[in-house]
Design goal:
By secondary structure, the protein is an alpha/beta fold. The protein has a single domain, classed as 3-Layer(aba) Sandwich (Uracil-DNA Glycosylase, subunit E), CATH 3.40.470. It has 12 helices and 6 strands. Strands 1-3-2-4-6-5 form a 6-stranded mixed beta sheet, sandwiched between helices. A hairpin with a 2-residue loop joins strand 5 and strand 6. It starts with 6 loop residues before the first helix and ends with a helix.
Length: 284
Amino acid sequence: MSLNLDSRQRAMLEEMRVKVWAPVTQPAAALEAPVAMAAPSESVAPRESAAVRAAARPEAAAMALQPRASGVQTMDWAALQQAVAGCRACALCTGRRHTVFGMGGLRAPVADQPPLADWLIVGEAPGEQEDLSGQPFVGPAGQLLDNMLKAMGLDRRRETATGDGRAAQGTYIANVLKCRPPSNRNPEGEEVAQCLPFLQRQIELLQPKIILAMGRFAAQALLHDSVPDAHSLPLGKLRGQVHRYRGIPVVVTYHPAYLLRALGDKAKAWADLCLAMQVRNGAE
């Protein structure tokens, strides 16, 4: 079928990078002459993402990646921060702006020691705003999380006095992944495998009294050794009970980003927070 396109239509197709071929009437002498094939113009080549270009150059991509730092399980707090900041163990490092180590807790008296934190909040992965700032939960989901913590009498930015004679409580927030997945997609198995030792060492150093796992991937990462079929169970099956991570109580709840889309589940999330507070206060 022939295309009768005017100049405006052809210009629109060119902007969309769609080539249009049409038969060209040439003199017979021209048809007998050999025709040289022109190289494709770069101006009409489809745009490729950095990830696609890296995949097309496996040697360059392989050179960019490096094994995860050894000895993570014995690092102090400062060394662990440096290891996360310089990690290039998976392809997420090629697109990140900042790693997101975590934030919160009480100020530590020694630089290489972790902050003191009774509560550890574990999310899944940084999003766009977190990637830009290098801090966890700073977008709309972070605002909701701050409101949830406030309702519990907690604050990620400073210690929280209990008012009943008990020591002040610190809250620390971290993610399973320390780099943002492209387009905020779900974490992949290899990415979790590379990042999980960092979170495990954070937990060992922080020694929290309770962990609040927010979202399915956070729950699965923390419970895969203690809950049979944790990776196949929906989040609803993991809620409403107290789990354990190496002896530390774990309460599972919805991720704040999910709650922004499913307002009806906020009541369930509040029930999870009440359970966590009961556990922390020794009423389990």
